[in-house]
Amino acid sequence: MKNVITLFCFAVLLFYCKTTNAHALWIETHTQGQLNKPQEVNIFYGEFANNEREINSNWYSDLRNFTLWLYESGEEPQRLPFAASWIGSTTYLTVD
Predict the structure, then answer these.
(1) Is 25 exposed, middle or buried (0-12, 13-18, 19+ CB in 10 A)?
(2) Three-state secondary structure along the chain?
(3) How do residues 6-58 score in pLDDT, each as one tens digit?
(4) What's the domain range around 53?
(5) Full-prediction pTM beyond 0.70?
(6) Does residue 74 lie within any of the structural domains?
(7) Residue 52 in domain
């Protein structure tokens, strides 16, 4: 009987893990930029593997506390400002 209960719990756990999904923040930008020109960087929240982008204000209430930092060799870290939009957040950075 103990083996049956253990097997049942294991099967339920496998089914539960199969049906769960996690969301993530990811960054997208163009692969090529120009020196001393602003580069658009987009931050999205959603299911990256399925390219599903959630509306930020409806799902992740702490997204407004998200900070984005630029680290350059030999330079102080620089906090990048960004503006939230209906489906993602955008910031512009200039590479010197």
Answers:
(1) middle
(2) CHHHHHHHHHHHHHHHHHHCCCCEEEEEECCCCCCCCEEEEEEEEEEHHHCEECCHHHHCHHHHHCCEEECCCCCCCEEECCEECCCCEEEEEECC
(3) 887 777 776 666 555 556 778 888 888 788 888 777 777 777 777 777 766 65
(4) 21-94
(5) no
(6) yes
(7) yes
Mention every residue, 6+ apart, whose C-beta is less than 8 A from residue 94. Answer: 36, 37, 38, 39
According to the model, what pLDDT value does residue 76 have? Answer: 92
Alpha-carbon span 28 to 53, nearest angstrom: 12
Does residue 54 lie within any of the structural domains?
yes
Do the domain assignments include residue 15?
no
Instruction: Please state the domain count of the chain.
Output: 1
What letter represents residue 46's amino acid?
G
CB atoms within 10 A of CB 88: 20
Q: Where do we find the tokens 């060799």?
A: 73
Distance in angstroms (rounded) separating the CA atoms of residues 32 and 80:
19
